[in-house]
Sequence to fold (318 residues):
Amino acid sequence: MTDDSDARKDDLKDGEALALGQQLCFAVYSVAHAFNRTYKPLLDRFGLTYPQYLVLLALWQHDNMTVKGIGEELGLDSGTLSPLLKRLETAGFVSRTRDKGDERQVIVALTEKGVALKTEAFGILMEIGKATGCSMKEAAALRSALHGLNRHLDEHNGG
Amino acid sequence: MTDDSDARKDDLKDGEALALGQQLCFAVYSVAHAFNRTYKPLLDRFGLTYPQYLVLLALWQHDNMTVKGIGEELGLDSGTLSPLLKRLETAGFVSRTRDKGDERQVIVALTEKGVALKTEAFGILMEIGKATGCSMKEAAALRSALHGLNRHLDEHNGG
DNA sequence: CATAATTTAATTGGACGCAATATAATTTTG
DNA sequence: CAAAATTATATTGCGTCCAATTAAATTATG
Fold:
């Protein structure tokens, strides 16, 4: 953009070596946004956002989850999930009902419309797979590396 | 959490192979949040958020950038940057002045306090490096893989 | 059994992130 | 030169995110 005379290919110079963690974080940050941009047009057709889609994915695998259960699966808390789930309810994809046995808990369940969406949204899988441009092997390796990184960070964050 | 009798270790079953792109996206999404949680306590000491820190990193490398320049470097638009930069200005880390030559542009520059923060915040590098738990080699490989993924996604997103 | 501690959701407030719109300045064109 | 198109930034609105607080229900404890 300006004068980057000190930016050679991909060599690891002293400063870069130290800053690798930061660069890794920024790379993750950027890819997360890029994925979001890739998903957006696909999800807009259904009026969904990516986190909303994640909730539906979780429910498609295992219906009737509590808010807490969904939060643990996705790493989100009630501050994020409560309004999100209300929007999903308003849109008619899920129902929210207090557990009879323990009235503190709210059971989130797929509606008929929510179940039906699973097959409708199946094409998204293919689209995203294509967009990554990764071979199955590359994608699996990258996913695995990211899981390891996630574990390390969670441990460091006292989880 | 409940009965996940169909969730075996890390094998690639048919469904999983198809869903690899999604799983990759979710892994990235999760790691991005984990990084954010790692940075938060480090940045709280300076009253900064991660995106604000990114802007300062960019300015420490190259002072006096336009809003557009920063946006291109970080992948953010004015809707995000305008209020963020005002907060950085209020906090006293940067100044914002309209370019005399082209009054459409706003030049963002580090204040004395902003420059001084660079050495103060140096410890963050080490902390983040430690938190990743990666060797230099692993980190470099992962970063490189993410760059490749970013390129693919950007191309797919018509960039 | 009554009070305290814990658990589960919801709410509130501050900060992204982006689309869409607005505004002002510059450049292009006729 | 004046109108149109382009460019740079700001604003608005919606939807995450998270921390902190609140409220209600359940469990533990004296």
In short: Chain B touches chain A through 65 residues (CB under 8 Å). Strands of chain B lie at 65-66, 94-98, 106-110. The first strand of chain B starts at residue 65 and ends at 66.
